């Protein structure tokens, strides 16, 4: 069974976090991913990890907590309280989740 994009990216992130800076070739060899895939995931990590808390979202625990928080925000504030998708997207952006979760109003609606 093939890995999801998030799982492949997590493998790269875990290796980089544990071993520090490494070459694309060495990461590809250890993770079993292609060099082009490793390169793409390293670039994505750099783009996403703009804030101090960003590295936490790349871990299993952080990813699960992030899902729980976003679902909770949408359910309690969007569904139960009737706050619109635009306002929810504004809030999620204000707490700096835009690089980790699809937070546009259209993504929240679907």
Query: How would you classify the helix and strand content by structural class?
Result: mainly alpha
- The overall pLDDT average reads 89
**Structure annotation, total helices:** 7
Helix content: over 70%
| Terminal-residue CA separation | 27 Å
Radius of gyration from the CA trace?
Answer: 16 Å
* Low-pLDDT windows of residues: none
**Percent of sequence in beta strands:** under 5%
> Would you list the SSEs in sequence order as H and E?
HHHHHHH
Shape: elongated
Structure description:
Helices cover about 70% and strands about 0% of the residues. It has two domains: about 5-50, Winged helix-like DNA-binding domain superfamily/Winged helix DNA-binding domain (Arc Repressor Mutant, subunit A); about 60-110. The chain has about 110 residues and is mainly α. The chain contains seven helices and no strands. The longest helix has 21 residues, at about 60-80.
Summarize the structure.
By secondary structure, the protein is mostly helical.
List the helices and strands and how they pair.
Layout: H1 5-19, H2 24-31, H3 35-48, H4 54-57, H5 60-80, H6 85-94, H7 105-109
Helix pairs in contact: 1-3, 2-3
For the structure shown, list the relevant keywords.
single chain; 110 residues; mainly alpha; Arc Repressor Mutant, subunit A
